[in-house]
Amino acid sequence: MSFEQPISTSPPIERVTVMQGQALASAGQSIEYSTVLGSCVATCLYDPETRVGGMNHFLLSEPPANTPGAKIDEHYGVYLMELLINEQLKRGATRSTLEAKVFGGGAVISGMNTINVGERNTAFVLDYLKTEKIPIVAKDLLDSYPRKVYYFPETGRVLVKKLHRVHNETLFSRERNYKDRLSGSDVAGDVELFV
Questions:
Q1: pLDDT, tens digit, for every residue of 74-86?
Q2: Measured distance CA(152)–CA(189) in Å, rounded
Q3: Of the candidates 106, 115, 96, which has an alpha carbon nearest to the alpha carbon of residue 184?
């Protein structure tokens, strides 16, 4: 008696890491987006009618108030939220049927409380989505741990792994460096917290 292995007819899943400063969207593709968040926030938007999904990952909500004329670019949530929505609309999503899942904003480094980066990012994304009338159907925000987020834009499914023990010091050292830069000088130029 011989047994044959079934042949998989489903296409392989393409795995894409969403880096800080990116907003990616797809329609009808077998893709898994993933990212790691400390104080950053990721927004996953999904249109259940057209099955168009997307994810962004932002570092800061918007330029500090004391920097007039600051360039609003891919470091800021205010830019990346609009970019994400526009990318989804280009792929056939309807703005009125979008729903959101939001993650991150953790206070992962002790001493970052004076800057409140995670709290500011969280307040920004909640206010933005309320203003745009995009309902939040799931969220995991704030607290004191980083997160690994896996998002499947074809179905809107999200998996979140809370990283209570992180062996990779890169996450923490980049946030520490960011804290030091903010406390020692005016905010200017490029800032990158995560790889």
A1: 778 889 999 999 9
A2: 33
A3: 115
